[in-house]
Design goal:
single chain, 273 residues, alpha+beta, Jelly Rolls, Arc Repressor Mutant, subunit A, 2 domains, 5-stranded mixed sheet, 4-stranded antiparallel sheet, 17% strand
Length: 273
Amino acid sequence: MFAKVDDAHFTISQRLDFFLFIAVSTGELLHTIDFISHKVTRGRWLLVKPGQIQQIDRSCYWDGFFVPISSEVLESAVGSHSSNDEAHLLMALQKMPSVLNLTEEQSQLCFNAIEQIALDAQLTGPVHLIEMLLKRQLHAIVLRLLVNHQANIEINSKPPVAFLLFLKFRRAIEDNFRQWHHVHQYLDMLGCSERTLARACEAISATTPKEMIDARLALEAKRLLTHTTIKSNRVASELGFDDASYFIKFFKRMAGYTPGEFKKRQGVVREFR
């Protein structure tokens, strides 16, 4: 991939509308996802999800694979008769973290599968059969990564009730953060008291419920400022702030810059579909 574009390409932030797995086989990669920098070596995989902002650091040497996967590929691999399977798979991918830790054996199995896809892409024969084969192989890689991730989750080390409440709250934030900026607005949906929710968030993520809401608002503001041309007052409106000046103060507190300063620092963003 690096051989096909100039260095300027890697100074530009990119917004994807597909899933992208990034695997390092040798060296070290520095990669930014949603404005958080990750250091990746062999055994760690990155997952960039649709809508996230990414930027590749060109300053260090590494070798590995980019594995882009669209929802259409997952749908065709699962099969039209299994729409529930596809929905569950997409939901599981959305819940996965940005960094996946694999053992050497797990990494090598995935590397072998990717290399096999590269070989099979050169096959001659009926195109529809080859495409079906490649999609099934991609699907198998995704399932393997999901299985490995689930096996590594130590749910038993966390209070089960608190963990489930935390997940429910995080999903509620994702669905409602533009309209609901305050903790009390979520309590009826969650069916718990503010104190119970606070204990769950502290136990699982060492954060408060309000910090989680504010962090999601700030992230969406950064995304809008980075990959759209709209002004800060429009961003404020999009995110449910009645007062643009209050939004500017909120953003500066969360990001360390005013919206205008942040936008200038990010430069141009390309959309990848």
